[in-house]
Amino acid sequence: MKPFSKIRISFVRATYVLLGIAVAGVLAADPVPAGAGSTQDYASAVARARAAFIKKMSSHRPLVPSTAPALAPAGGATSLPTVNWSGFADVESGSNRVSSITGEWVIPNVQCPGGIYQYQDSINAQWIGIDGATNGTVEQLGSATQCFEGVEFYYVWYEMFPGGTVVEGTQACINNNVDCPQPGDRISASVTATPAGNYTLSLIDFNHPAEGFSVTASCAPATCLDSSAEWIMERPAFGLPFGFQIVPLANFSLTGFANGTLTSGGKTTEIEGFKDGPVYDVQMTDDTASYWLDCVGQQNFFGGPKLLLTSNPNACPTVSPIHGSFTITWDSSY
């Protein structure tokens, strides 16, 4: 085996060990909502949670920049602050189209709000996909955690423009919040696209195989432009009559992505190896762009009562993935 291959395997293993430590020993939370006094009440609460998740995730509000995006050169990593995404986005600057994207991650543990905030809703959605960074279409899939009425709900899902978010997995999970994906589950996902506008979206949950799925869909090439590839942690921004609202970011343990690759113009590269356009380090801020909500590649955990101001250049420095892998650290919810 070549030395480079050994280095790559060692890094990926280290990434999974690190992420595994972050979720090791997690005990499943009691899934029954407070006040759910019967099976019927519980089923109603699960249905309300799922309906709220789908509504907020289906708004077709992709990346929302918190400042005017910088004109970025091809290659290298350029900072792109937003109010609802963090991770990486590779954006085509020429005529090539992204034809596939892959990535792996570990579902993080989530700490839902407590005390007087225990019924505050929050979401984090971890996904890979094509489009959305520079246009209004998305072809994406992933996992998500929702804190709803004091209870954690875990989902696997996909969204294919112009349709809304579709929750996948077993009926026991969808209808009863039983045997769902859990913190620590290792996920592998991919999206492939053909020049004719045919897409295949596939997800594997190695710990709960029944939650995996593969779906096919189509979108006209003139509509879905296949102009970017993303590896993202999201708090959804959903439309309202007077504008849009952003859901608080659920507090998550250390997570990230591994083995992130894309194919564009017939060339397959890791995230940081993309040369046809800019590689954006997408960083999530509050909606006033004053402080960071989470950060890619943060060297230390800065969580706690002190907010990390965006004016501090050391709080969330611009970084690049290593062999398609990077970590994400939570700092604040909203």
**What helical percentage do the residues reach?**
10-25%
Cα gyration radius (Å): 19 Å
Topology pattern, helix = H, strand = E? HHEEEEEEEEHEEEEEEEEEEEE
CATH superfamily: Peptidase G1
The number of domains is 1
How much strand content do the residues show? 35-45%
**Main sheet properties:** 16 strands, mixed
Q: Detail the poorly predicted runs.
A: 1-18, 20-36
Shape: globular
Mean pLDDT: 86
CATH class: Mainly Beta
Which CATH architecture is right? Sandwich
Separate helix tally: 3
Task: Report the end-to-end length measured between terminal Cα atoms.
Answer: 47 Å
What structural class do helix, strand and pairing data support? mainly beta
The count of β-strands is 20
Question: CATH fold name, please?
Answer: Jelly Rolls
What does this structure look like?
- This protein has 334 residues and is mainly beta.
- The protein has one domain: Peptidase G1 (Jelly Rolls, Sandwich), CATH 2.60.120.
- Helices cover 14% and strands 38% of the residues.
- The strands form three sheets. It has a 16-stranded mixed sheet that branches. A two-stranded antiparallel ribbon has the order 4-15. Strands 13-14 form a two-stranded antiparallel ribbon.
- A hairpin with a 4-residue loop joins strand 7 (151-160) and strand 8.
- The radius of gyration is 19 Å and the shape is globular.
- The N and C termini lie far apart (47 Å).
Briefly say what this structure is.
The chain has helices at 3-23, 39-57, 171-176; strands at residues 77-82, 85-91, 98-106, 110-111, 122-130, 139-148, 151-160, 165-168, 186-193, 198-205, 213-218, 228-234, 237-240, 243-246, 251-252, 255-264, 267-270, 279-285, 292-296, 326-330.
